[in-house]
């Protein structure tokens, strides 16, 4: 169901170069999320760690959506 919605609204309007750039954006966002979570777990404590973890999760979800759009 989700893939059908993504295909209908986003990927159907992208050309192959657009899909390539969308996949690069998704990969970049996932790398940023990994770096944020690594920093949060090694250098921070308390509520700062929680906030950074939540930011990393949100960035990871956006990266996953970009990756799904580029696949469809």
From TrEMBL:
<keyword id="KW-0472">Membrane</keyword>
<dbReference type="InterPro" id="IPR020076">
    <property type="entry name" value="DUF2768"/>
</dbReference>
<feature type="transmembrane region" description="Helical">
    <location>
        <begin position="20"/>
        <end position="40"/>
    </location>
</feature>
<keyword id="KW-0812">Transmembrane</keyword>
<feature type="transmembrane region" description="Helical">
    <location>
        <begin position="47"/>
        <end position="71"/>
    </location>
</feature>
<keyword id="KW-1133">Transmembrane helix</keyword>
<dbReference type="Pfam" id="PF10966">
    <property type="entry name" value="DUF2768"/>
</dbReference>
<protein>
    <submittedName>
        <fullName>DUF2768 family protein</fullName>
    </submittedName>
</protein>
């Amino acid at each position: 169901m989700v893939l059908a919605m993504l295909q209908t609204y986003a990927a159907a309007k992208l050309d192959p170069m657009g899909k390539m750039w969308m996949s690069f954006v998704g990969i970049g966002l996932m790398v940023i999320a990994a770096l944020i979570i690594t920093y949060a777990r090694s250098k921070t404590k308390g509520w700062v760690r929680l906030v950074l973890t939540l930011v990393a999760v949100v960035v990871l979800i956006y990266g996953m959506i970009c990756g799904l759009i580029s696949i469809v």
